[in-house]
Amino acid sequence: YLDKGADLAFDIVFIDPPYDLPNSDVEKILLSLVNNGFLKSSSIIAVERDSKTKPFLWPQGLAELKVRKYGAASIYYGEPRQ
């Protein structure tokens, strides 16, 4: 789905992959959002991950806003770079 390109861009994108999904796969998903027109300049991205997992790297075109930890889960918030 992400590789086909977007018919419209989204204001909010929430990604909740399985906790054991490798960070490299999360980074590929994020890069697809950037490269295929799924994001507006004002979009917010939220990615849920296991708090014990090493943080992923935000790909070129996205910047981290903040990280919030809720017990076993961490939510990483990001936005497109201006």
Write a structural description.
The structure is a single chain. The chain contains 1 helix and 4 strands, in the order βαβββ. The protein is an alpha+beta fold. It has a single domain, classed as Vaccinia Virus protein VP39 (Rossmann fold, 3-Layer(aba) Sandwich). Strands 1-2-4-3 form a 4-stranded mixed sheet.
Overall mean confidence score, pLDDT: 95
Overall geometry comes to globular
Number of strands: 4
Percent helix, as a range, is 10-25%
Number of domains: 1
Indicate the multimeric state.
single chain
Number of helices: 1
Main β-sheet, spatial strand arrangement: 1-2-4-3
- Please give the CATH class: Alpha Beta
Looking at this structure, what is the CATH superfamily? Answer: Vaccinia Virus protein VP39
How would you spell out the order of helices and strands? Answer: EHEEE
Kindly identify the CATH topology: Rossmann fold
Radius of gyration in whole Å, from Cα? Answer: 12 Å
CATH architecture: 3-Layer(aba) Sandwich
Keywords, please?
single chain, 82 residues, 1 helix, 43% strand
Q: Any chance you could write out the topology, listing elements then pairs?
A:
Elements: E1 10-15, H1 23-35, E2 39-50, E3 62-70, E4 73-80
Parallel strand pairs: 1-2
Antiparallel strand pairs: 2-4, 3-4
In a few lines, what is going on in this structure?
The chain is an alpha+beta fold and 82 residues long.
